[in-house]
Design goal:
Structural class: mainly alpha
Shape: globular
Oligomer: single chain
Number of domains: 1
Number of helices: 11
Distance between the termini: 31 Å
Radius of gyration: 20 Å
Amino acid sequence: MRAVISFNSNFHLALRLLVRSRLVLIVAMCTAILAAAAWLAGQFSPRQPATVALDVGLSLIRIGVPILALLQIQDLVAREVERRLVLTSLTYPHSRATFLVARYSAVIVTALIVTLVLCVVLAGVVAWVNNVYAQATSVALGMPFAITGALIWLDVAVVVSFGLVLATISTTPHLVFIGGVGFMVIARAASTIIKLLEAERDLVRGADWYHQGLQWVQWIVPDLASLDVRQIALYGKMELLTASPSALLLMPLSYVIVLLLIACAVITRRRFD
């Protein structure tokens, strides 16, 4: 019971800190940029404007939300460690793991809300574009779109959990953002590059060498490219969902749990002096 109360207090404190950091204003600006970009993409597309608008909007969400979440985890954990404010936070009667998981949970809940807001706005823009120009193949803004948005949030959860690990071991807060973005790029591109090298052996010199060098990456880095299932919403065909739902959920959740355990173990043993 005491642990639950401690977690709730840390969680609500983290949420208040995020709100005070002009989060609402930043989200409003991101929403406006998303709506304008999606609408313009649809207007400049001679064919399938709703599909193009949805595609561009989903790309912006997949880029913007994890970057925003990494900046939040950087401020809530890494900057507190750098400024030694974490010493004050850890004097309260709670474990370091509780402090860390509460901060992570606040960022993830915030990312979920931001993702929902952006997806709702995007759906409204795409629906308006679709009404102006009727397509032969209509986009699916129902369950396929909801699944796409949920998997984007899981993608963010994995990236932020890696950023949390960096925040517990780094001595400079900038490593969290730079390392988190680098991890996101590698995790989203590794499997695609491996498949390309398998299909096109003559694409580059030494393709076999590159392929062997990247094989081990699949055992360490999560395949975040598999969480990008936008095709089911773009074309309204659930059969385009190649992986099973259990695999799409098990992979990111497993990585989140492992990375959280690593982060909690590191911060428990770290000396702040």
